[in-house]
Backbone:
């Protein structure tokens, strides 16, 4: 099998490659993987905007749970937390959670978001707001029942 001579563009070392290598891989520029990875041209080839996974600042993605995450200063942040932090003018504390009032996780309008403590957010699968709404419905039904009884007593008199 014939071999041809190549010269490494990084370290100027002479090495041999097969015709197959030239045909399939386009020839030989480097004598080893170590030389290839140490070359700055090769390193920069897949960095930044040239990388297939590159996302610009402000770009959006969805998590598996349905939340929107956005890239801010090179970091991905949950959008609902970012919106609330901008609205409040401060960072959220570790024990604070941003709740979506209507339950739609990608609806990040400020009037749909509510900051609450973690311990109130989720109790036995229900968040604190749902518990309060059930309590309000129960008390309203009790008031209606009392009003009805009061009206019955007035009619009897």
Residues:
């Amino acid at each position: 099998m014939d071999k041809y001579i190549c010269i490494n563009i990084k370290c100027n070392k002479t090495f041999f490659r097969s015709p197959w290598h030239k045909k399939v891989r386009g020839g030989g520029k480097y004598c080893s993987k170590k030389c290839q990875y140490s070359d700055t041209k090769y390193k920069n080839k897949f960095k930044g905007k040239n990388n297939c996974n590159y996302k610009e600042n402000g770009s959006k993605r969805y998590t598996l749970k349905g939340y929107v995450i956005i890239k801010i200063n090179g970091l991905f942040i949950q959008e609902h937390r970012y919106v609330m932090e901008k609205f409040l003018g401060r960072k959220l504390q570790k024990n604070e959670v941003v709740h979506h009032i209507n339950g739609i996780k990608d609806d990040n309008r400020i009037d749909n978001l509510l900051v609450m403590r973690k311990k109130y957010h989720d109790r036995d699968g229900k968040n604190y707001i749902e518990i309060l709404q059930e309590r309000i419905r129960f008390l309203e039904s009790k008031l209606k029942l009392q009003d009805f009884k009061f009206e019955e007593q007035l009619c009897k008199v």
